UniProtKB/TrEMBL annotation:
Residues 27-198 form the Ribosomal RNA adenine methylase transferase N-terminal domain. It comes from the Bacteria. Its EC number is 2.1.1.182. It is found in: Cytoplasm. PANTHER family: DIMETHYLADENOSINE TRANSFERASE, DIMETHYLADENOSINE TRANSFERASE-RELATED. S-adenosyl-L-methionine binds at H20, L22, G48, E70, D94, N113. The gene is rsmA. This is Ribosomal RNA small subunit methyltransferase A. CDD domains: AdoMet_MTases.
Amino acid sequence: MNYKNRDDSKVRAKKHLGQHFLKDLFVAQRIVDGLSGHGDYEQVLEIGPGMGVLTQYLLNKTAFTTHVIEIDVESVAYLQKNYEELAPRIIEGDFLKFNPDEFFSGSFAIIGNFPYNISSQIFFRALQIRDRIPEVVCMLQKEVAQRIASPPGNKDYGILSVLLQAFYDIDYLITVPPGAFNPPPKVQSGVIRLRRNAVTDLDCDEKLFFRVVKTAFNQRRKTLRNALKPIGEFPDHPLLTKRAEQLAVSDFVILTQIAQRLPG
């Protein structure tokens, strides 16, 4: 069935779920084409398919098998009715509580139009299972997309930039205007692609690394010597004279190694 001939009125966009349904089919095709196959995965999980505007193009891709996860029962019912071939692979649930072992035996890519209100949480969950996820293609609020893809030294560079760039190579693909959605959001959207890099071990305590990064950016206008005081008194080091946005991932690894040696 052609997507444009479906009855869109059957699924109402719900504000509490952050739903903005993509209606621009050209954009949908470009998002799906963003999947590069990096990591040689055979399965893809779409987060929040809604009425299936991305799904229809994913199902045309024979290089992998498409699964979807959707928390909205109304959307699940719509997908089951309009995508009968997909029905056995529709997961009704919350990605934030998703256990991949229940559905996948190997690696899988992630794709989706992420709800703005939980996009950061989706990335933190993906980081927890990063060795199962070789590639992510997603659309989210433009400012967040730019932040994630931003290099060190840029004002947009932040916590998510460092944590995700530690394990993924990231490309900003396209900007999408509000008019491409129903209802239109008040901001522009951006599409990014994350491809798993070769880093398997950060050579430091990972939980402490996350804490160092978050603490450093909590007071990003201060030098790191002052910003990192909640963690402890660091010995003299050139990195401590800089601000968080000036440091690469490798610099944060060095600071974490120093933090591991602090008393207490």
